[in-house]
Amino acid sequence: xxxxxxxxxxxxxxxxxxxxxxxxxxxxxxxxxxxxxxxxxxxxxxxxxxxxxxxxxxxxxxxxxxxxxxxxxxxxxxxxxxxxxxxxxxxxxxxxxxxxxxxxxxxxxxxxxxxxxxxxxxxxxxxxxxxxxxxxxxxxxxxxxxxxxxxxxxxxxxxxxxxxxxxxxxxxxxxxxxxxxxxxxxxxxxxxxxxxxxxxxxxxxxxxxxxxxxxxxxxxxxxxxxxxxxxxxxxxxxxxxxxxxxxxxxxxxxxxxx
Length: 258
What we know:
Blueprint: E1 2-6, E2 9-13, E3 21-25, H1 49-63, E4 81-83, E5 99-102, E6 109-113, E7 117-123, E8 128-134, H2 136-141, H3 143-155, E9 163-166, E10 176-177, H4 179-189, E11 196-198, E12 205-207, H5 209-219, E13 224-227, E14 252-257
Parallel strand pairs: 4-5, 9-13
Antiparallel strand pairs: 1-2, 2-3, 3-14, 5-8, 6-14, 7-8, 7-9, 10-12, 11-12
């Protein structure tokens, strides 16, 4: 990924999209005080709403996209995908969902993260983009594949034309999970999925969300996938991490726009 700065903000962009307006933002350059310091985009974590609003404005300004056209959802760890044509007057969210797609220019799609996986999508042939929020629940429900299928239905996208990216999120060495998660992963991907490893000392399981989402996308027909390989729990200096900071933290943002 390429590291960029703008007015104190730091954000990363994927190598495969050199001309596309997009970014995964770090915690730098915002207005929020600790423990949300400083570019917190989460509106329901206890931060001052005025600071959150200003942080959103700064994020969109860094990418030179229209704040007044931005679309987002109320993230609920689902696999539901919403087609966005523009914001709804008088509402902050389009719906409760964890995926967004659009083919409208100047319509930024944004979501918030703090260990869960940002998934970004581009169909350069049909001119469409998408974004998804994939925690372990969304991953085992196939939210990434659902975005691909939604783009196919709405815009006629071919999965082989879609380019996908797996953003910074909790890595395979830090995401310790319970047996119910291991079972859910096996139900989705098969008993021999190889996505969970066991600690040789105590037998606890660690899940690789990056590989799980790659596999889900590949099964959906996506051939072009870039993985950031950046662990939020190992880099709390740059990213908010719900797991590492024991829930007392903010949310970083990801944006994509035609």
